[in-house]
Structure formats: structure tokens, C-alpha cells
Specification:
CATH architecture of the largest domain: 3-Layer(aba) Sandwich
CATH topology of the largest domain: D-Maltodextrin-Binding Protein, domain 2
Largest sheet: 5 strands, mixed
Helix content: 40-55%
CATH class of the largest domain: Alpha Beta
Strand content: 15-25%
Number of helices: 10
Structural class: alpha/beta
């Protein structure tokens, strides 16, 4: 079994375990928001601000790779809101009929960056530099289940270096794991979103910002069968409101449009 298949199987197993854990912990009056790992810091702040405006509602955040979160919802894990780091993960959720399509909104944009450890002397001028013999390991999310991995694959394919770089890949289960690999110096370079690189300026540095084949945009939607449909819609409305957008901007996210 290839490493990619092993990781995917592991991620699905984790999804099932987390589904049970969320089911056990979700209580009446709690709003469960399943959101992409790259939203961790920003959505914690968004959740706090939302709770201040809605004193009777407790927001419970569940962060992870977008596709894994989607699988959790498909398998029956309680969730009221789903926010993913790319359109494909939300498209899959729509295909599985686990979201309410009419509530889907794009709420943020991001960038794809190549990072290296802060003390690294490696200063790539182009993605082709990743193919040199001095670069041994490159971290990025598994394209099969992690949006940043899909954006990375697209950028590397466009540059004509996918085969060479993917042979050096250290696949991460989500974007924050890729960030951690670079921050700890376990790889020579890695791909993350710009907002992720910004939370560890003392441990990683951005080597380049990369064009993507499709814009890095984040959609959000209410989960079909939400036990808190009114609160779920209120949360989505807050995220796209000027107040919610201001919170996201503090963490480096750009407007979706």
C-alpha cells in the first residue's frame, strides 16, 4: 500500500473516531462548526465574537482537513456549519447532499506560499529549484484530502516539476501539519497558505508566493439536518458581515470577491 493510500485510510479512520467524539460532546444549544485547519486561529476569534452577540449560543469548533471534515459529516457526525478551504471539498459535500446549497457563500480568500525554516539558507528563485539534489524533503498536504495539497499539485504541474517534487513529498494530513514540519526543520521546504505562514514568523519564512490555477477561496454553508438551523444561518451571516470580515482580516484573510 502506498504512503498516500495509508494516510488516506488513516484519515478516514480518524474521521470515524472524531465523529463519535463529537457526537458524545455535542450538547443542546451548542453550534458545531466544522472548519478547515487553516481557519483555526481566525475562527476561534470569530466564534468568540459571535458568542458575545448571541449569549445563549455556545460555538464548538472542529478543525481539520476539509475533505476529512466532509467525510465526518457524511458519516453522521453532528455539525451545523461547514467551512472548507477550497471549492472542491464543498462541491463534494453538495454532491453528498449534506449541505443546504442555497446557504453556500464564499467568505474569504488566501494565497499559496512556499516556506522554508527561518534559519535556512535555501532561497529558491523558482519552483524548479525544488528539483535540485540538495532538496531532500518537501512537505505539503495530501492532494487526495487536503485543499492546500490540491493547490500545490496544480502549481507544481503548471511549472512542470510535479513528478520530481512529489518524489520528495512528505504528505501532511492538513495544512498545519505541513507548517509544523517546516517549523521544526524536518523538511527543506513546504507549501502552506499565506495565513498559516504568518502565525510562525519566528520559525518559518516565505520563500515565494505562487500563482494558483484557481483562486484560493473559502466557501461556507449550513449543514443539512442541522439541529440549530437558525443559529447556523446567523453564524454564516456573521462571517460574511463587515464585523466578521474584520476579524478574518486581522488574521490575514482577504475578501472573497
Amino acid at each position: 500500500m502506498t504512503l498516500a493510500r495509508q494516510l488516506k485510510k488513516y484519515a478516514l479512520c480518524v474521521a470515524s473516531v472524531v465523529s463519535v467524539a463529537i457526537s458524545a460532546n455535542a450538547q443542546a444549544g451548542e453550534l458545531v462548526v466544522s472548519a478547515a485547519a487553516s481557519l483555526t486561529n481566525a475562527f476561534k476569534a470569530v466564534g468568540d465574537a459571535f458568542e458575545q452577540q448571541h449569549p445563549g449560543t455556545k460555538v464548538v469548533m472542529n478543525f481539520g482537513a476539509s475533505d476529512v471534515l466532509m467525510q465526518q459529516i457524511v458519516k453522521g457526525a453532528p455539525a451545523d456549519v461547514f467551512a472548507s478551504a477550497d471549492q472542491k471539498a464543498m462541491d463534494k459535500a453538495a454532491a453528498e447532499k449534506v449541505i443546504v446549497p442555497s446557504t453556500r457563500r464564499d467568505f474569504a480568500a488566501n494565497s499559496l506560499v512556499l516556506i522554508v525554516p527561518s534559519d535556512s539558507h535555501f532561497a529558491p528563485a523558482s519552483l524548479n529549484d525544488l528539483t535540485t539534489a540538495s532538496v531532500k524533503r518537501v512537505a505539503f498536504g495530501d492532494p487526495a484530502s487536503v485543499p492546500v495539497g490540491r493547490y500545490t499539485q496544480g502549481a507544481l504541474q503548471a511549472a512542470g516539476v510535479w513528478d520530481a517534487v512529489s518524489a520528495k513529498a512528505v504528505l501532511a494530513s492538513n495544512v498545519r501539519q505541513s507548517l509544523d514540519y517546516v517549523a521544526r526543520g524536518e523538511v527543506d521546504a513546504g507549501f502552506v497558505f499565506g495565513t498559516d505562514a504568518a502565525i510562525m514568523p519566528d520559525k518559518v519564512k516565505v520563500a515565494m508566493t505562487l500563482p494558483t490555477q484557481t483562486p484560493v477561496t473559502y466557501p461556507i454553508a449550513r449543514v443539512e439536518g442541522s439541529r440549530q438551523p437558525a443559529d447556523a444561518q446567523a453564524f454564516i451571516d456573521y462571517v460574511v458581515s463587515p464585523a466578521g470580515q474584520a476579524v478574518l482580516a486581522k488574521y490575514g484573510f482577504k475578501p472573497a470577491h
